[in-house]
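Hey L., structure's done. Input below.
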Amino acid sequence: MNKKQIVAVVAVVVVMGYLYSQPVKGLIKPKEERTAPSQQAEAPANANVDVNTVSGPAKTAIGADLAGKIISLEEMLKKASSPAERQKLQQELAQQWDGVNQAAPAAFYYLELAKSKNDYENWLTAGQRFNDAYKFTQDTTVQSTFVANAIFAFKKAMAVKAESLDAKTGLGIAYVNQTSLGITDAEGGSPMQGIMLLREVVTADPQNWNANLSLGQFAMKSGQFQKAVDRFKAMIAQDTKRSKVEPYFYLAESYKQLGMKTEAIEAYQKCKELMADPTMGQTIDNYINELKN
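Output:
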């Protein structure tokens, strides 16, 4: 396993805490409420949350050795005198943060690049990193900013490339993420609107990995575990080179919630085989032992 694969594996377990910690209100509504206008007040992003806010903790997380190159680039950016020079350094910083799997600071640099270039790729990447940053933090002081920036970036990406399924998927995820914060953006963006966007993506591309994974996760989040099982089994059956660690892990969790212990253990075992990492394997063994005892 390379470094990024190991991080991705760890992320699966981290996301489970995120998944079950979020309220399900808004994902399942009585039929008569589904077309009603949202009564939630818009909560704007915290203007005090910026790249400086998130880069400090990120540097601590990666250690002084890895942070050294980033600090050097930051100093160069402060002294940059031309737009072209600033863009070059912002690109380098975004890539450096990506390289150490720190989504939050990377997101802010991609956002600045997108604002100056107004290009699809940077808008899309900014939105994706903000969605990732939201997913992996429980810090409520920054979450609203991550969500608001994700929605902003994905809308901009779709303005440049209206047919983008990746941008539509990201926007759908960001809309659902608003649920736990009790907010909507100025143009709406309810949880059900988010789910509908994801369903539109799957209708257009039935094997779309990110949309299917998100729909499966949100089915779990709303207690619809059989739907989640069906979704993850379909993903596992896909003929793809993608790692199937995540769908196997979520399949196991869904089976566990349904009380199907044998099936859950089998899915956990397959997940462990695909991980091929002793530390994470021990974590999976603990889950299996809990089911056996």
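Residues 1-24+223-293 form a domain with the Serine Threonine Protein Phosphatase 5, Tetratricopeptide repeat fold (CATH 1.25.40). DSSP finds 14 helices and no strands in the chain.

-- N.
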